[in-house]
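User: These chains co-purify. Model them together.
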Amino acid sequence: MDESMRGAAGNGVTTWPARVLLLIATLLLVLGTAAWPARASERVSASLVADTATVTPGGSFWVALRLDIAEGWHTYWRNPGDSGEPTRIDWELPEGVVAGDIHWPAPEAIPYGPLVNFGYHGTAWHLVTVTVPEDWPEDRPLELRAAASWLVCKDICVPEGADLTLRLPAANVSMPQPASATVLAAARERLPAAFDGRATFAPQPAGAGGEAAGNQLVLTLAGLDPPDEVTAAYFFPDAWGAVDPVAPQRLTRSDGAVHLATVAGSEPPGETLAGVLVLEPERAPDDPGRRAVVLEATRDQAAAPAGTPGAPASAVTVGAAPGLFVALGLALLGGLILNVMPCVFPVLSIKAMGVLRHASDRRTLRLSGLSYTAGVLVFVGLVAAALIALKAAGQEVGWGFQLQSPAFVAVMALLVFTLGLSLSGVFSIGGSVMGWGSSFAGGGGDGGGGARGSFFTGALAALVATPCTAPFMGVALGFALTQPWPVALAVFLALGLGLALPYLALTFLPGTARLLPRPGPWMERVKQFLAFPLYVTAAWLVWVLSLQAGAGAVFAVLVAMVLAALAAWLLDLAQGLAGARRSVAGTACLAAGVAAVALAVWPRAGASPLPPTQAETDANRPAVDARLAAEPFSFARLDALRAEGAPVFINLTAAWCITCQVNERLALSSARVAEAFRERGIVYLKGDWTNRDPEISRLLDGFGRSGVPLYLFYPPGSDRPEILPQFLTESIVIDAVGSLPAVAGDTDRTKGSG
Amino acid sequence: MMSRNTLMPPQCHAVARRLAFTLLLAAATIAGSAWTGQAVAAAAIGEPAPPFTAKTAGGETRSLADYAGKVVVLEWTNHDCPYVRKHYGSGNMQALQKDAAGDGVVWLTVISSAPGEQGYVQGEEAKRIAGDAGARPSEILLDPDGTVGRAYGAKTTPHMYVIGRDGRLVYMGGIDDRPTTDPDDIKGATNHVAAALADVAADRPVASPSTRPYGCSVKYRS
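Assistant: Joint model of the two components:
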């Protein structure tokens, strides 16, 4: 039709052959074929289809460029994804006639090797509205000319195009074109609906040390409310580069909202993120279950998703969440257990010995106990507030997250070392500051100073407790972080209360104080001995730092420690001097102290630390590496392994997590465990959370945890992994995997994939 | 020791107190403010370009390190891709290569098509195709297993990268801003690679360091 009609149009409609053709065309239109394939390659045949048989002045109607695409080939959406080119229509229209932009059907994500494109298979409808001006002559037919061009690809790509013409006679009343009106209505029905809820997105900084390249992005839709069985969604961004097409998109829900966590592309979105969200994207495009909405999300600065953004839905079954009272109880218990952890015990012991001194002075004791408790609670409250705020800002954080900052680790090492020096007797920190002077050494009866000292000791105890994640705490704190902030705060404070409880009991129950041995010179020796757990803690923190920030940072913090020791010595010296000499020593002490802190913080404030790659980390743990070959954890790897039916054991760990290190040494690095894994072809995935890693945070979130360790075992074909306890023994691990029969002849599995 | 407490020099006493305070406060606040983690992207603007070693069409082995101190252009190609043909058929790519060579820029054409896929060629054929087209790359690198392509995240043919003299990536993206196969679009298009090379030559920061690459997908081994 097009060529002949084009000719007719050129001659005007008054010539009789044109009238005949017009008549034939009208007849054919009414008979139900609104368009002719203007051009058909072996890959694509293209046609123009209208939902009307006639044009009326001032009216508007729908036209579609229909592409019928051969099996195995695809054309592209408005954003073609990693490669390709969108289909285009260049209209040539009579004056006053306006064709709108293409209304694009929801595309499919089409993987090609390591790339993903956005486009169409089968039949693609590119819908356009055409508006006819009011003054359109009633007897003038409308000729729509379209130069369509598209790229069609399979394993190769072919650019194609067609000049299409559609001619519609004019009429007073619009005459629908029944057959094509029906198909166009159906095509319109399938267009993504406008989303009328609230859509926001929150970008997140990249995780260090993880495999996630680029920036994390969480899209939140309030008011979409998909049916419960919807487990997957895919967001197609309008703008190239806004979202990485290759990155997995993980759907989670919290009351009234859905969250989709993925990774921004090379041009992350600015203030808005527009595109099409498809629910159940794996379904065929004409499947009614494949719902699509078109939306424009705005950047979310403040409000946080109430749930757990980014928790993977498909890969993970959420573990049973404890109730509030169980969580409070667990937190309390966890706090109690923290007291005997190597990082807290020395501090607590010193306080306990202070009780001996003041056993007679009930009032001072109680004041001290209350102040200590207040100190713990205030510090824990501050950490909780920081956590809740960061979580609200969309950060993937959890308990112990402070230790992911090398600057924090360096400062902690310095602090713990300085405390150790004080216990060793190198110097005495002002009693009114740390509380030891007044309570341990009996620094006078001034209740005010003692109370303040106790307050700081409490805060200090809570601070040094940070690295020691006690069992029970993981569950409770994980629960807390998924709750509204008052509940979260309550759980954290319960933890603090647990930490403070032993000392509080000691000061309030005179009976317990009487159970303690009598004070004497032995206390000084115990105090000096207790410096050594602190030195060990400092040594361990320096090791953590070496993994996080490399040898340069270790050197810096070691020099900082020497400066701190110098400052401590000068302080003690100055106390024995008078006059000008004292001023000189005091000034030098000040200078050395400031230099030490500056040195501990400064080298990492600007420079980015060297994130430990898995290889590096493992190189530092030859004992583990030699026995059980670990692959770095990623969702992609986990999904792939589970898809091929391999059993998977996941170990989420961090260098600064003592429990994790102990478990790795005692349980996971044993030859028997390695043998059990090899026999069963179990792939060992290790997620190192020493530095921030959003994928690991998401996995933890998925199990209601906010910190490491977490051990998971996925038997083949099972959706529900077994969650192992936080304290592992060889036999716990072997029992967990023992249900799986040994695979003969597949003993190299872990090695091969490692 | 405690008896000296009261004799403590006021300066240091105050400092000790302030230090303790600062450390405690730091514990609660530092974590929020001192994230210093950085993503380790495969290829990122301003970061050192991913190192690689590959065989040339002539059978020699070349590494990125061989070109230390020089400006290097990486061009991903597939001679049968219509987008590549647009730029070779029009002479656009050859002209760019010639200008680059004149400025002492190293031009590496990379073929990441896997065996059996479109654009896969062996050394002799690669040289012949380049010769027929009048192409002037410094080397043609054969990357049939896609190692170099994946290290850079090369998605399309053409996909262009420019590495500065300091070995850092200064440009990645399309050859120009007209993502079509129509050679008529070359005239009037902004050539991003030429612009990036001009910026590098003038010691300016590259104005558009990252643009959308366009073309056929790189035919990696799936």
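Chain B touches chain A through 61 residues (CB under 8 Å).
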